[in-house]
From TrEMBL:
Enzyme Commission (EC) number: 2.7.7.24
Protein name: Glucose-1-phosphate thymidylyltransferase
Catalytic activity: dTTP + alpha-D-glucose 1-phosphate + H(+) = dTDP-alpha-D-glucose + diphosphate
Function: Catalyzes the formation of dTDP-glucose, from dTTP and glucose 1-phosphate, as well as its pyrophosphorolysis.
Cofactor dependency: Mg(2+)
Pfam families from the UniProt entry: NTP_transferase
Every Nucleotidyl transferase domain range: 2-237
A GO MF term: glucose-1-phosphate thymidylyltransferase activity
Species: Amycolatopsis samaneae
Lineage top rank: taxon: Bacteria
Family: Belongs to the glucose-1-phosphate thymidylyltransferase family.
InterPro entries: G1P_thy_trans_s, NTP_transferase_dom, Nucleotide-diphossugar_trans
CDD domains: G1P_TT_short
Enzyme class: transferase
Length: 290
């Protein structure tokens, strides 16, 4: 399975913070925002990842992450010069996907919860069409909503419904089989001139091949796309890390525990950042797990 992080857009909801920098480079407590979606793909066992961003943002993202080799990954980059919808990421990434299943995640989405790696890998192994991830929200009229029947089967998808029939918000994480690119190619642009990811999901639903996995109690999903949600995400990560003495979305730790890198690589990376708590955490982790 190939991975795509869509880290494009202007980040206008976060102005003036994002007038001179990519939204995905903003700090969510102790690490750049892009670390969080990357960590999800890594936990799903995905190592070939394409990051799509604006022409201005690709160079600093490349400076941050390089080719991914220090994490045991293969990271490449592509440009989206204008925001033309989430589904365009499937077309931009068509060569990267190369006829294989894919996982697409939005660059400002943060997921955290016990057992998440197990859930992601199960979803990957059982993939038949597309798998969406739902999360209960108190204001479903603001989201794309997935309605399920009594058996838990997905029966409808509505974008920002006036009268929601469910509280299952469809998050910014999508698993697709090899048909996703062709489905995206067949879409008609919306009135805004965008290729809507909801239309991709609806086509899978029409074919009877769309599934919704509900992330319930014990999970957290945050969209760090506004000032308030960015602050809330930082505070959430701060509380977890300080109370549990662990790091959320620590890419080096995930890479080490999954065998993508060895303890020596983790230690070297930590030494490069030894003046920060994050760097010292990596050095200690390497000594503990080495």
């Amino acid at each position: 399975m190939k991975g795509i992080v869509l880290a494009g857009g202007t980040g206008s909801r976060l102005y003036p913070l994002t007038k001179a920098t990519s939204k995905q480079l903003l700090a969510v407590y102790d690490k750049p925002m892009v670390y969080y979606p990357l960590s999800v793909l890594m936990l799903a066992g995905i190592r070939e990842i394409l990051i799509i961003s604006t022409p201005e943002s690709v160079p600093p993202l490349r400076a941050l992450l390089g080719d991914g080799s220090e994490l045991g990954l293969d990271i490449s980059y592509a440009e989206q010069d204008q925001p033309r919808g989430i589904a365009e990421a499937l077309l931009i990434g068509a060569d990267h996907i190369d006829g294989q299943p894919s996982a697409l995640i939005l660059g400002d989405n943060i997921f955290h919860g016990a057992g998440f790696p197990r859930i992601l890998r199960a979803a990957r192994e059982r993939l038949d069409g597309c798998t969406l991830f739902g999360y209960p929200v108190s204001d479903p009229e603001r989201y794309g909503i997935g309605e399920t029947d009594a058996r838990g089967a997905l029966v409808s998808i509505e974008e920002k419904p006036l009268r929601p029939r469910s509280d299952n918000a469809i998050t910014g994480l999508y698993f697709y089989d090899s048909d996703a690119v062709e489905i995206a190619r067949g879409l008609e642009p919306s009135a805004r001139g965008e290729l809507e990811i909801t239309d991709v999901n609806k086509e899978y639903l029409k074919q009877g091949r769309a599934n919704l996995f509900r992330l319930g109690r014990g999970f957290t999903w945050l969209d760090a796309g506004t000032h308030d949600s960015l602050l809330a995400a930082s505070q959430y990560v701060q509380v977890i890390e300080q109370r549990q003495s662990v790091r959320v979305a620590c890419l080096e730790e995930i890479a080490l525990r999954m065998g993508y890198i060895d303890a020596e690589q983790c230690r070297r990376t930590g030494e490069e950042m030894k003046n920060s708590e994050y760097g010292r955490y990596l050095v200690q982790l390497a000594e503990t797990l080495g």
